[in-house]
């Protein structure tokens, strides 16, 4: 089971934090710091696995991380997960982010924090790997996006458009047209004819 | 894309109000949504923890007021939640928002609910009392007909759910196991698994349903159910033996490629599923011959099939080996698995090596001979830079005991200890291993010798270990108790929290001792103290005093390229030749005006090498080279980047930059001593200004300058004294320098003779840098030759080893993308049969350019391999991968793999059309995208913005009419896109049209990114309004107007 997923930048600033195991708030922050210090001092040419820090449970847990440009993606897992499997899962997650954001960069993670969480929810659910197929994940996210579109488009947009139109000063449009009058006039005209 | 749509909708009212005045609720709302951006940027701009705390507290106070205000709409609440999540992530208490998160999840529409659920799952924990308020919402959403609502409810259930409320939702979730959508079934299975974890008794009765899930027609649901089975089998394997057959069948199908290709990952069928199944089989077959026999076939098949060299194949292989060794042994399989372990251990990939060693530790228990086979590798690993690997290796040694006597092992370790090739850290590990082994050894001669030797070691760590060993050794009985024989290889339980010292600590504290601060806290304190005390004596204050006052009086900018060894003397007016007013056409990189036009520098000035004369005796060169070498090494990385960019804009090598800094310092000094004419120093600074303006990344330059300034300022005085003004020596000196120049100019366009004829002074980097930098220059210079006509990217190293270095860059040619791979042979011998191949990619057509492939790469030279790439299908992101192989001295061939990313931008080219054509084309295109971006004051000048876009995105500026700008580009081979920019106050209206529907969106995104980055750099308040209109919304509006 995955215990925690941490993403922080080269300076240790957290960019995505998701714990699947309960830790008090201040311990969470300490875990982030501890993990950062553990990972930071490792070269790029040594292996991507290490034992978890003392706070998260020590040698029972493994930290599996990957370093992309300015960001570290760290997955803290227990012994039931395969190291190499998780390593590729990180890759899948990052590639999915890349697909969803087009050329994902640290800024995307900051400004679309909620979206990143939604994507993560489709990959890992409650600490269990839910989906590893990138196309499937993207399809789910797109389904949600369509939802945004339809929700805004069908319910909100016409209402707003109408209210917006009402607010515009359109000189050629007589303001106080009463449809009731029209109804009355029509029979009058027919009487003339 | 969805982004844009979202913005479209929020922007509609604003669009209509635009003609009147942007005011009222629309403006307020838009600025509201971008406050997260403001907050983030505010935080990144801060330097100390303290300031951050202040800012966040302030933000939290604002949020507190907003969320509790009755006028706050749910939509605004949604934005607030995102900001609260951000604050909470940084470790600040946002507990006042928890209840509002729950409210949002209860009351919001789908989008708001989603944020609400997310916030709840991040803020709360399973036993939080507020969570009870959410139960009803979850129940309601689980019954919803909307799939997305059901999904959200299942997600939250699997993340946090109060244990005592499980009965309330359990029947609903059980129902979902029969849902028609597979994603719902899958999430329901995982939610049930979560229940199983937190309250196993409650889900006892649905085990039969888990079996149903295992047999689900959808692979995803089946895979999800494996989580449950893995767990349950781990707890009690005997109860599930009857399922072995099913698991074996599933694995057989997966391995046999019976799954749809959708499940392939790098052409490996469902690797994660295989790993899971192999683990389950390993648990089931443990110590059970009959069950194990069922799986021998499929294990064999798995081992056989896993032959591809992707990372994930190794993951399966590793799992497979693990399973083979944990089930009832079968010699044939063990043999094969052992071979696989060999592949892991011998792999150059460090991750695999680690896993290989890890595998060895459990394999050795059954088969010690295997470890002996790999003994050499193991010993090599001992000196690996990775401490984790080392530890695995030493664990290994303790297992070797079965075969060898402890004495033998200790002797071996002792020999290792004495060799100089291993680091002291490793030695410390080894002594620890010896300590573990000592109690089992019968004779202790070697141990005693070792103790004697290392208790006097210089290394504190080694000494400590040796003393430990010594004292333990003196009390053998105690030692045996401490390190029992049968447990010598197991990890001992250590009280990491040092709780037995608590009493002592409390006592000390009560007596007034300072409390312990953890490492990071101490560091932070140190940092903030450092901040307070640093006044930055040179860097910033200098630059402010330096530039403004010292412009060249004549208005002619004279570039001053000064060689490292001659700067100081060169500045003395007695030896320099004045060149004011004389137009120089040749500089050290060749013909100057050409470069000028290429860089597109606005200044008309030509960087003209100023007459400086080299005059130094040889030992001075040597002493200075030593110094500059130190500089070079410490800043090597920086210089490499700088070098690439400086060559790109046509400047000299990095020495120019450092030397400009140097010259400047000196002129500063001279001025103070009033030994140099004012004009002289004026020229130097102007030169520097030229340099600055032509650099795109001026921050780098400044940094570099400051760095050198600091260093040279100290040395300046000393060195000036050392220099003699001997002009005869100077002539001879410049002659002796020529061979060096020759060496460097191999890779430059100019020749030494040219310099000699013109009697110009010669600039070159200091000798020491020349060597280290030569390869960079050679690479970059070849780049210069070919790319004069086209725009190109910076040189980027894609892969390297000790003999070669492969760099690549993109040349954006008019008709295609030309990829150039520069292969630089670093070694002293020539490489034969060099061959570079690019794997075919699905979206591209790749053709090798003729005449660039040569089988031999001479020593210390560069060969270029060119491929033209054409796009066959539009895409946004692609990847080109390939490999290079070569032979070293006819013996073995080496292969290196690399890959390069391509984006759609690489295929965007300027479209050169007239304004009239633009007008015609504009009307003919159907797809358009509009957006307004707020610009900062400094950006308000349209031309500069357009210029930035033109440079970054390779667009063509058709025309600029007043406050409107027209740009055009095309996506190769021929999909045009027209861009219209209009400045309206401080708003920039972007309007893109194209015949292709996705292109405007993509370009809009890129333009925004660039404009945004500019703004980020300038650090001006971010407060933008986004408006977009898509065609469909326009038509809706038209209908609305008609109705009225």
From TrEMBL, chain A:
Domain AP complex mu/sigma subunit, first and last residues per copy: 1-147
Q: Name one Pfam family in it.
A: Clat_adaptor_s
Localization: Cytoplasmic vesicle membrane; Golgi apparatus
Q: How does it sit in the membrane?
A: Peripheral membrane protein
Q: Which InterPro entries match?
A: AP_complex_ssu (IPR016635), AP_mu_sigma_su (IPR022775), APS3 (IPR027155), Clathrin_sm-chain_CS (IPR000804), Longin-like_dom_sf (IPR011012)
Q: Where is the signal peptide?
A: none
Task: Identify the keywords attached in UniProt to this record, alphabetized.
Answer: Cytoplasmic vesicle, Golgi apparatus, Membrane, Protein transport, Transport
User: Which Gene3D superfamilies does this one have?
Assistant: 3.30.450.60
Q: Which domain of life is it from?
A: Eukaryota
What does UniProt give as GO cellular component? AP-3 adaptor complex; axon cytoplasm; cytoplasmic vesicle membrane; Golgi apparatus
Biological processes, Gene Ontology terms: anterograde synaptic vesicle transport; Golgi to vacuole transport; intracellular protein transport
- Function according to Swiss-Prot or TrEMBL: Part of the AP-3 complex, an adaptor-related complex which is not clathrin-associated. The complex is associated with the Golgi region as well as more peripheral structures. It facilitates the budding of vesicles from the Golgi membrane and may be directly involved in trafficking to lysosomes. In concert with the BLOC-1 complex, AP-3 is required to target cargos into vesicles assembled at cell bodies for delivery into neurites and nerve terminals.
* Family affiliation: Belongs to the adaptor complexes small subunit family.
| Protein name (database record) | AP-3 complex subunit sigma-2 isoform X1
From TrEMBL, chain B:
Quote the subcellular location field of this record: Endomembrane system
Per the record, GO CC terms? AP-4 adaptor complex; endomembrane system
Q: Do you know which Pfam families this protein is assigned to?
A: Adaptin_N, AP4E_app_platf
Q: Which GO terms describe its biological process?
A: intracellular protein transport; vesicle-mediated transport
Report the membrane topology from the UniProt record. Peripheral membrane protein
SUPFAM superfamilies for the chain: ARM repeat
User: Domain AP-4 complex subunit epsilon-1 C-terminal spans what residues?
Assistant: 909-1012
Domain of life per record: Eukaryota
Q: Alphabetically list the UniProt keywords.
A: Golgi apparatus, Membrane, Protein transport, Transport
Q: In its keyword annotation, does this UniProt entry include Protein transport?
A: yes
Q: What is its main location?
A: membrane
UniProt lists the family membership as follows:
Belongs to the adaptor complexes large subunit family.
Q: According to its UniProt entry, what is the function of this protein? A: Component of the adaptor protein complex 4 (AP-4). Adaptor protein complexes are vesicle coat components involved both in vesicle formation and cargo selection. They control the vesicular transport of proteins in different trafficking pathways. AP-4 forms a non clathrin-associated coat on vesicles departing the trans-Golgi network (TGN) and may be involved in the targeting of proteins from the trans-Golgi network (TGN) to the endosomal-lysosomal system.
Q: How does it assemble?
A: Adaptor protein complex 4 (AP-4) is a heterotetramer composed of two large adaptins, a medium adaptin and a small adaptin.
Protein's name in the database: AP-4 complex subunit epsilon
What's the source species for this entry? Physeter macrocephalus
């Amino acid at each position: 089971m995955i215990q925690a997923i941490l993403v922080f930048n080269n300076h240790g600033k957290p960019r995505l934090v998701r714990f699947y195991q309960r830790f008090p708030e201040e311990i969470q922050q300490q875990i982030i710091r501890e993990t950062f210090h553990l990972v930071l001092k490792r070269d790029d040419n040594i292996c991507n696995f290490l034992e978890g820090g003392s706070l998260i449970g020590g040698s029972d847990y493994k930290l599996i991380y990957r370093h992309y440009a300015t960001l570290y993606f760290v997955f803290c897992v227990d012994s039931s997960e395969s190291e190499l499997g998780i390593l590729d899962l990180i890759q899948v997650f990052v590639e999915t982010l890349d697909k969803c954001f087009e050329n994902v960069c640290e800024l995307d993670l900051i400004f679309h924090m909620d979206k990143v969480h939604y994507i993560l929810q489709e990959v890992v659910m409650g600490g269990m790997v839910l989906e590893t197929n990138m196309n499937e994940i993207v399809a789910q996210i797109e389904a949600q996006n369509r939802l945004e579109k339809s929700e805004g488009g069908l319910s909100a947009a016409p209402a707003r458009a109408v209210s917006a139109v009402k607010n515009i000063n359109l000189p050629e449009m007589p303001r106080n047209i009463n449809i009731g009058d029209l109804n009355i006039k029509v029979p009058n005209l027919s009487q003339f004819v | 894309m969805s982004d844009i749509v979202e913005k479209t909708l929020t922007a509609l009212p604003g669009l209509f109000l635009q003609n009147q005045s942007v005011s009222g609720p629309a403006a307020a709302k838009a600025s509201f949504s971008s406050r997260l951006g403001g907050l983030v940027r505010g935080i990144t701009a801060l330097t100390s923890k303290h300031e951050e705390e202040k800012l966040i507290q302030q933000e939290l106070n604002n949020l507190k007021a907003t969320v509790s205000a009755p006028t706050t709409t749910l939509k605004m609440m949604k934005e607030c939640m995102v900001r609260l999540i951000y604050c909470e992530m940084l470790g600040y208490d946002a507990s006042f928002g928890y209840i509002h998160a729950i409210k949002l999840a209860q009351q919001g529409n789908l989008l708001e609910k989603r944020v609400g659920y997310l916030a709840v799952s991040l803020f709360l924990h399973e036993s939080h009392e507020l969570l009870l308020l959410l139960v009803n919402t979850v129940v309601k959403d689980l019954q919803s007909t909307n799939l997305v609502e059901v999904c959200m409810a299942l997600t939250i259930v699997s993340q946090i759910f109060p244990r005592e409320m499980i009965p309330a939702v359990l029947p609903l979730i059980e129902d979902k196991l029969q849902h028609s959508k597979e994603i719902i079934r899958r999430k329901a299975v995982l939610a049930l698994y979560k229940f199983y974890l937190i309250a196993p008794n409650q889900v006892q009765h649905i085990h039969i349903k888990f079996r149903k899930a295992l047999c689900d027609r959808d692979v995803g649901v089946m895979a999800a159910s494996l989580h449950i089975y893995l767990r349950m089998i781990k707890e009690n394997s005997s109860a599930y033996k009857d399922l072995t057959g099913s698991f074996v069948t599933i694995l057989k199908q997966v391995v046999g490629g019976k799954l749809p290709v959708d499940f392939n990952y790098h052409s490996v069928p469902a690797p994660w599923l295989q790993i899971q199944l192999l683990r389950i089989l390993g648990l089931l077959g443990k110590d059970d011959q009959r069950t194990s026999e069922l799986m021998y076939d499929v294990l064999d098949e798995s081992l056989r099939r896993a032959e591809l060299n992707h990372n994930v194949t190794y993951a399966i292989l590793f799992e497979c080996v693990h399973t083979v060794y944990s089930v009832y042994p079968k010699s044939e399989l063990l043999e094969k698995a052992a071979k696989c372990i060999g592949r892991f251990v011998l792999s150059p990939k460090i991750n695999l090596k680690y896993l290989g060693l890890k595998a060895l530790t459990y394999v050795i228990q059954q088969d010690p001979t295997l470890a002996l086979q790999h003994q050499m590798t193991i010993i090599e690993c001992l000196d690996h830079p990775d401490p984790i690997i080392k530890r695995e290796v030493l664990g290994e040694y303790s297992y070797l005991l079965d075969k060898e006597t402890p004495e033998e092992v200790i002797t071996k370790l002792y020999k290792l200890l004495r060799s100089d090739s291993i680091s002291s850290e490793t030695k410390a590990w080894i002594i620890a291993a010896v300590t573990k082994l000592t109690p089992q050894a019968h004779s202790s001669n070697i141990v005693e010798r070792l103790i004697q030797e290392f208790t006097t070691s210089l290394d504190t760590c080694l000494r400590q270990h040796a003393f430990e060993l010594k004292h333990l050794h003196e009390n053998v009985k105690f030692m045996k108790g401490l390190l029992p024989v049968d447990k010598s290889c197991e990890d001992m339980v250590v009280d990491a929290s040092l709780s037995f010292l608590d009493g002592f600590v409390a006592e000390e504290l009560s007596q007034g001792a300072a409390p312990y601060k953890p490492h990071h806290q101490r560091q932070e304190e140190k940092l903030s103290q450092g901040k307070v005390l640093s006044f930055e004596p040179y860097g910033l204050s200098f630059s402010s005093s330096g530039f403004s006052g010292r412009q060249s009086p004549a208005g002619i900018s004279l570039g001053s390229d000064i060689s490292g060894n001659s700067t100081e003397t060169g500045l003395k007016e007695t030896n320099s030749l004045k060149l004011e007013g004389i137009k120089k056409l040749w500089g050290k990189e060749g013909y100057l005006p050409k470069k000028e036009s290429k860089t597109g520098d606005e200044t008309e000035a030509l960087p003209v090498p100023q007459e400086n004369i080299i005059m130094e005796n040889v030992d001075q060169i040597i002493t200075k080279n030593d110094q500059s070498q130190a500089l070079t090494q410490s800043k090597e990385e920086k210089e490499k980047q700088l070098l690439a960019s400086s060559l790109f804009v046509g400047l000299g090598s990095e020495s120019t930059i450092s030397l400009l800094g140097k010259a400047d310092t000196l002129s500063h000094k001279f001025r103070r001593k009033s030994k140099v004419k004012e004009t002289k120093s004026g020229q130097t600074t102007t030169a520097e200004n030229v340099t600055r303006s032509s650099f795109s990344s001026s921050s780098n330059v400044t940094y570099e300058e400051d760095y050198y300034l600091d260093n040279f300022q100290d040395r300046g005085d000393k060195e000036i004294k050392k220099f003699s003004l001997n002009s005869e020596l100077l002539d001879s000196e410049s002659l002796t320098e020529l061979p060096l120049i020759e060496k460097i100019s191999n890779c430059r366009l100019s020749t030494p003779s040219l310099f000699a004829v013109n009697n110009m002074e010669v600039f070159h980097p200091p000798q020491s840098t020349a060597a280290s930098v030569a390869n960079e220059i050679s690479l970059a210079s070849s780049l210069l030759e070919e790319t004069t006509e086209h725009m190109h990217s910076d040189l980027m190293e894609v892969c390297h080893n000790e003999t070669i270095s492969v760099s690549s860059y993109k040349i954006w040619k008019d008709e295609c993308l030309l990829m150039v791979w520069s292969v630089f042979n670093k070694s002293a011998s020539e490489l034969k049969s060099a061959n570079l191949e690019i794997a075919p990619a699905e979206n591209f057509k790749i053709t090798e350019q003729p005449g660039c492939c040569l089988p031999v790469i001479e020593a210390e030279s560069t060969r270029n391999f060119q491929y033209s790439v054409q796009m066959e299908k539009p895409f946004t992101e692609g990847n080109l991968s390939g490999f290079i192989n070569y032979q070293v001295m006819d013996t073995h061939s080496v292969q290196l793999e690399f890959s390069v990313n391509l984006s759609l931008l690489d295929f965007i080219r300027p479209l050169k059309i007239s304004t009239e054509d633009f007008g015609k084309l504009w009307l003919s295109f159907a797809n358009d995208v509009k957006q307004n971006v707020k610009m900062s004051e400094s950006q308000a000048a349209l031309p500069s913005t357009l210029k930035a876009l033109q440079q970054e995105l390779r667009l063509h500026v058709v025309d600029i009419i007043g406050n409107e700008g027209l740009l055009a580009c095309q996506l190769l081979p021929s999909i045009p896109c027209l861009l219209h920019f209009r400045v309206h106050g401080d708003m920039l209206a972007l309007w893109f049209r194209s015949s292709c529907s996705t292109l405007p969106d993509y370009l809009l995104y890129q333009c925004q990114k660039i404009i945004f980055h500019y703004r980020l750099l300038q650090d001006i308040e971010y407060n933008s309004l986004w408006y977009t209109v898509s065609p469909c919304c326009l038509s809706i509006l038209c209908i609305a107007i008609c109705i009225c």
